[in-house]
């Protein structure tokens, strides 16, 4: 949207998307953007800009220095990259629609090990046999996960009940205050789009080069996790394939095979609230092995899309544009101009945003 098309300033609301890279957590990204937004005449009036500047100087931020609201339409794990929808001002009211709406992901999973976080950022809980698994077997179990399913988050996640993590109840021998509520989600489509054999452990070669995480869960924590699983299974309130796999989890073998196991890559279109990591974890169990996420990309959400390639942000604003502006801001450098010119990050938003009145 060119500057001439703006009916007035400041803009009452704007909706756009950032192409998030893998690595940074979402909340620090938002924290870095907020001072830019609050000190931009694109989104704030002169009085609000002055309030924001004074708050930054005095380190008194309170809730929103300068009064500009900013929010996101569905956070991404640090490991994940892709579409991160942003709402500013009146556009924050539209974010719930994006949170609840369908999203498309591509996830690469490494066979042979499950982790406490269900991704490569966690610690290895169990290694499992993988040499029997083929692409055809992966494709053969996917139908069990299509349609309306029930999911549980990673057992070793931050899921709490009455303020305490689930494993606390197992460790203390306490009964769960109430049954764990599974999350009902819909998997509209789920396809295996790639299969890669592992490259040799030593030397170069064809295939991927992903490895298991270096850290492992101590035996004491494994017992805690097993107790938590028994409590969940004992309640018997997880229907469908998730409940079946959870019940079978205690009987899965602990095996460490030689070599580098293969990866499989899936593309899925899912409803809001779907645990992608749990889906990969359960697929690993369904083929008699284990699996965890090593790459994750949100490639479509609403009208916004971007590809996995770093140079193709689609109709999203590249994060590098904001990263450069944040670094300059911290160094006391370039701020939004008071003249009729826009700085680079403002131009990037103007080019991609949908104005909301």
TrEMBL record:
GO terms for molecular function: RNA binding; tRNA pseudouridine(55) synthase activity. Pfam families: TruB_N. It comes from the Eukaryota. InterPro entries: PsdUridine_synth_cat_dom_sf, PsdUridine_synth_N, tRNA_psdUridine_synth_TruB. The keyword Repeat does not apply. Gene3D superfamilies: Pseudouridine synthase (3.30.2350.10). Keywords: Isomerase, tRNA processing. GO terms for biological process: mRNA pseudouridine synthesis; tRNA modification. Its EC number is 5.4.99.25. The keyword Transport does not apply. Residues 68-197 form the Pseudouridine synthase II N-terminal domain. It catalyses: a uridine in mRNA = a pseudouridine in mRNA. SUPFAM superfamilies: Pseudouridine synthase. Belongs to the pseudouridine synthase TruB family. HAMAP family: TruB_bact. This is tRNA pseudouridine(55) synthase. It comes from Calocera viscosa (strain TUFC12733). The lineage of its organism: Eukaryota, Fungi, Dikarya, Basidiomycota, Agaricomycotina.
């Amino acid at each position: 949207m060119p500057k001439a098309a703006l009916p007035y300033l400041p803009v009452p609301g704007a909706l756009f998307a950032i192409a998030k890279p893998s690595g940074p957590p979402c909340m620090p990204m938002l924290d870095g953007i907020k001072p830019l937004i609050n000190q931009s005449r694109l989104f704030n009036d002169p009085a609000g800009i002055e309030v924001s500047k004074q708050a930054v100087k005095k380190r008194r931020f309170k809730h929103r220095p300068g009064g500009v609201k900013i929010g996101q339409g569905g956070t991404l794990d640090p490991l994940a990259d892709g579409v991160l929808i942003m709402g500013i001002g009146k556009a924050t009211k539209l974010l719930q629609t994006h949170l609840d709406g369908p999203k498309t992901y591509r996830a690469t999973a490494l066979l042979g090990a499950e982790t406490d976080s269900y991704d490569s950022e966690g610690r290895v809980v169990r290694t499992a046999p993988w040499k029997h698994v083929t692409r055809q077997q992966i494709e053969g179990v996917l139908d069990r996960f299509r349609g309306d399913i029930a999911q549980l988050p990673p057992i070793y996640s931050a899921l709490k009940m009455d303020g305490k993590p689930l494993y606390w109840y197992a460790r203390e021998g306490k009964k769960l205050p109430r049954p764990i509520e599974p999350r009902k989600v819909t998997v509209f489509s789920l396809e295996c789009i790639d299969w890669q054999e592992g490259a040799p452990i030593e030397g170069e070669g064809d295939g991927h080069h992903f490895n298991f995480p270096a850290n492992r869960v101590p035996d004491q924590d494994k017992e805690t996790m097993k107790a938590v699983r028994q409590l969940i299974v004992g309640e018997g309130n997880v229907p469908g394939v998730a409940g079946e796999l959870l019940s079978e989890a205690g009987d899965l073998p602990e095996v460490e095979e030689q070599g580098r196991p293969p990866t499989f890559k899936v593309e899925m279109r899912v409803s809001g609230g779907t645990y992608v990591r749990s889906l990969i974890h359960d697929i690993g169990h369904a083929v008699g092995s284990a699996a965890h996420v090593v790459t994750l990309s949100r490639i479509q959400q609403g009208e916004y899309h971007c590809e996995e390639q770093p140079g193709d942000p689609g109709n999203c604003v590249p994060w590098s544009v904001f990263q450069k502006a944040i670094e300059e801001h911290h160094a006391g450098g370039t701020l939004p101009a008071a003249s009729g010119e826009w700085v680079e990050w403002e131009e990037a938003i103007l080019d991609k945003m949908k104005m909301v009145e």
